[in-house]
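for ur thesis appendix - ABC transporter permease. copy paste whatever u need, i formatted it the way the template wanted (i think)
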Amino acid sequence: MAVTVTDNEPGDLVDPVEVSSPRSWKRAFADLAAGWRQRPLWGYLGWQDIKQRYRRSVLGPLWISISMGVIALGLGILYSALFQVSIAQFLPHVAVGLLIWNFISGCIIEGSEVFISNEGLIKFLPAPLSLHIYRLVWRQTLFFLHNMVVWLALMIIFPHPLGLTSLLAFPAFALLALNGAWIAILAGILATRFRDIPPIIASVTQLIFYLTPIVWSVDILSDNPAVRERAQLVELNPVFHFVEILRQPLLGQEIVGRYWLVAGAITIVGWTAALVCLRNYRSRVAYWV
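the 3d part is after this line
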C-alpha cells in the first residue's frame, strides 16, 4: 500500500483530502490569513505582554510614556542648545522622531527573536506562525499609542499648524506597521536558523539610529554650506523615509511626495522577500527553535 508523506508542522490547517508541498504559496498565504483570523488571541496576548512587564508597578503602563517623555526632553534641550535652535521648534522634532523610532526599532530587534522567544508556543500550540508576528506588531502599536500622550502634550505646549494633511498620519502608520510585519517575518526566520543574527541586528539598529535624523535635523545641517551636499545623503537611509512620512503630518509640516514613493517601493520589495522566505522555510521553524 502506497503511503504519502507530508511535512506538516504545528499550526497547519490542512484539508485531510488535499496534500500539497510544504513549500507552496498557498500555505504561506493561508498562514497569514489564519493568523489574522485569530485576532482575539494575539490581541489579548499583546496586551498581556504590556501588563506583565509593568506588573505591581504603581503607575503601570504610564511608565512607557514617562520614560519616553524624559528622554525626549533631555535630548531636545541638549541638541537645541548645540544646534542653537529654538526648543519650541526642536523638542517636538526630537520627541516625534523618538516616538516613531521606538516602533521601528522594536519591530526590528524583537522581530529577530520573535520565534525564538516563543519556542514553547510554536512547539506545543497548534497556531500559525503569523500569529506571533501580529502579536509583536500589536504590542509595538500599543507602545506607540501610549507614547502619543507625549505628542499631544507637546502640541498643547508648542502649537503647530495642524491641518487636513495631518490625517496622512493614519496611512503612514499603517505603512509603518506593514513594514514592521515583513521585517519580523524575514528577520525572525533567519535568526531562528542562524543564532548570530539577533546580536548583529541589534548592533546595526543602534548604528541606524545615529544615521537617521532623530535627534538631529537635515534642514539644520542643510543651512551649513560646508555639509549641505553630504546632509542630503541621508535619503539613502531607508528608515529616514518612514520617519518622515509620519513625522511630517504629526508636526503639520509640508508633505514630501518622494518619501511616500520610496516607502511604498520598500514595502513591496520587503514583503516580496518575506513571502518568499515564509513560503520556503515556514515548515522548518518549528524544528529550528
